[in-house]
Amino acid sequence: MTMLRALNDLYGRLRADGEAPDFGFSMEYVGFALEIDMEGNFLRLTDLRSLKNDAPQPVRKPVPRAQRTSGVLPRLGADTCAYVLGVDAKEVKVGGRKSFEANLSPRAAEKHTAFIERHRELFAGTNDPHLQAVLRFFESWTPEMFVEREFSAQALLQTLQIEIGEGSEKVVLHQHPSIVAEAQKPGEGELVKCLVTGEEGPLAQNHMQIKGVRGSQASGAYMVSFNKPSFCSHDKKNGANAPVSERAAFGYVTALNTLLAERGENRRNALLGDTTVAFWAKAAEGDASDECDWIMSAVMDPPTDADEASKVRDTMRKLSQGKPSDFSRLDPETEVFLLGLAPNASRIVVRFWKPGTVSEFSENTLKFWDEMTIAPEGWKGVPAVWSIVLETVPAGKNGTRSLSDADPMLSGEILKSVLTGRNLPVSLMSKILERIRKDKEVNARRAAICRAVVNQTTYKEKLPVSLDTTVTDEAYLLGRLFALLEDIQSKALPGLNSTIRDRYFGAASATPARIFPMLERNISHHLKLIRRNGSGHLAHWFDKQVAEVKGGLGMTMPRILGLEGQGRFTTGYYHQKADKWARQEAKRKAEAIAAEAAENQSEQEKETA
Fold first, then answer.
1. Would you tell me how many other CB atoms lie within 10 Å of the CB of residue 268?
2. Is the pLDDT score of 153 beyond 90?
3. What pLDDT, in 10s, does the model give residues 275-299?
4. Helix (H, G, I), strand (E, B), or coil: what is residue 88?
5. How far are the Cα atoms of 66, 204, 224, 229, 385 from residue 207, in angstroms, in the given order?
6. How does DSSP classify residue 375?
7. Whole-number Cα distances in Å, 339 to 3, 7, 30, 166, 317
8. Are 32 and 45 contacting, i.e. CB atoms less than 8 angstroms apart?
9. Per-residue pLDDT tens for 406-445?
10. pLDDT of residue 66
11. How far apart (Å, rounded) are the C-alpha atoms in residues 519 and 503?
12. Of 498, 499, 501, 506, which is closest to residue 437 (Cα–Cα)?
């Protein structure tokens, strides 16, 4: 299914569920109601906002849409205070704090005049008492009244709806049949066969703007646009170059804007670097739809809680096998869609478009999670794409990393690899190795990334999850040897400000034949120091370990290790270090158990005595 067709189909479902507006309308935040009586007299300005997190928030409602740029273009029935009342906001400082006051600017007067003229033209000759009341209000109202009556300055920043009459007579202007009919009136474009739906309808000369893509203009940007002659073919103008009907163009944009506007835990969008991702399911209803959204959210931003991560894994594993899950009634063949968008000047670029099924996405995601496994684990729960990208970013002055500093293309490339089951980009490991050389840090996440990329791309021996002394790969063994040499140095010379890792890790992993002979010259001296410090058994263990690792190496070390070899080196280094940590933890636990047993024995002896 094409991207625009899938979005247009989604619009139909969102509209039926009340999550998207009817054709010709858009969801806007309305803060105040201008109330007038049936004679057109002003009654009151009512605050419609409700408290949320101790702050008043406007109500999101469907109102007739207006695709504005920098010009003056009034909406029908509801608009900003400048359009409806002819007053805009002027920023002032009160007691050192920012505030706003009414401003009777020429721009506001121009907007107000345009608003009045549009409605006068539409209501001309009407006998409807509610519409006549609106016209009488326009005749009697002057913007100065806003200041004279000391209306709330908060209204200056809000969209206002107009309410006529009281009680059972009350009518909201933008819901009046004449306004609705005008908002939904077909355009004057030629009738075309829509390339999205295959049905005939008026041509959409210009498509609406997409809002909510990070980095794009606040007013929105176009995904489909033919705004220059060089973009057009065969003397066609604007939308005629790719004929889409008005309703289909409205549908796909409204559906996408609805997804991108969602916030909170149940949102169907995510941010990866400069890529904004929208995701949704097809033909899922009720609980099944919620479960599908939950699964896709877990793909985009996996849970860190161990129990929740286990639940997600179990659900996805069974779905990938086409089996029912204990936690889900979702059909494994439910269609799902992922769309990655990025800004490009006044346009929006489609980074990726991936339709598939819940079963396919579950299978590919599980494959990715399994490939990223390393012991001990580097993630709480399961790895997220954003956490992988973050490992390629340098730390700031405060020690934290920001995705805004990452390669803008990398997140999308990784996500595409995850969702399609393809190999991760080799450039990911290249960036990780570069970061290790600069940061001097080899952590579980970086080692897991190197292991995953190597295992996906190699034709040689696969790398294990944890230390495996039977692995004969030369680069892996060199990484293990480097870790042992570092531990020997640290034990022999405690309190060092830097170790061989800080000075030589990058060079040793790239040119081992040049670096290792120099490092090995100090082994005997360091082992002697360890023995002098009363740790002869440890020195013997180190000596034995080094001999075993070197026994797997050839007579000559490789002069150069390529990218794959450096990834193997890094994995071997981490495995050897992690094995030491595991032994230390096991020793600590054994000592704690022994101490507890001795304490219990002592208490029993006291009780017996």
1. 19
2. no
3. 899 998 886 555 566 777 777 777 7
4. strand
5. 12, 6, 6, 17, 32
6. S
7. 8, 10, 30, 47, 24
8. yes
9. 888 888 889 889 988 899 999 999 999 999 999 999 999 9
10. 86
11. 11
12. 506
Q: Minimal CA–CA distance to 47: which of 132, 151, 123, 180? A: 151
**3-class DSSP assignment, residue 18:** coil
* Structure token digits, residue 381: 């729960």
Sign of the four-CA dihedral 80, 83, 85, 86:
positive
- State mean pLDDT over 189-209: 89
Distance CA 343, CA 349 (A): 6
Give the burial class of 585: count Cβ atoms within 10 A of its Cβ; 0-12 exposed, 13-18 middle, 19 or more buried. exposed
Residue 168 to residues 37, 136, 164, 172, 182, Cα–Cα distance (Å): 12, 21, 11, 12, 25
Per-residue buried b or exposed e for 337-372, using 16+ beta carbons within 10 Å of the residue's own CB: bbbbbbbeeebbbebbebebbbbbbbbbbbebbebb
Mapping DSSP to helix (H, G, I), strand (E, B) and coil, where does residue 101 land? strand
Please state the pTM of the whole predicted model: 0.80
344's tokens: 């490009």
Question: Please, where are the H alpha helices in 440-535?
Answer: 444-457, 474-492, 500-510, 512-520, 523-532
Which residue, 426, 382, 381, 375, is CA-closest to 571? 375
How far is residue 141's CA from residue 447's CA, in Å, rounded to a whole number? 71
Kindly report the number of other CB atoms within 10 A of residue 253's CB atom: 26
pLDDT tens-digit profile of 465-482?
999 999 999 999 999 999
- The token pair at 575 is 């495995």
Angle at 552 between CA 551 and CA 556, to 5 degrees: 85
Q: Which of 286, 196, 273, 212 is nearest to 13 (CA)?
A: 286
Instruction: List the structure tokens of 129.
Output: 């008492």
Average pLDDT over residues 181-197: 89
3-state secondary structure of 473: coil
What single string gives the DSSP state of each residue in 298-343? HHHS---SHHHHHHHHHHHHHHHTT--BTTB---TT-EEEEEEEEE
Using CA atoms, how far apart are residues 85 and 63, in angstroms rounded to an integer? Answer: 18
> In 3-state terms, what secondary structure has residue 52?
strand
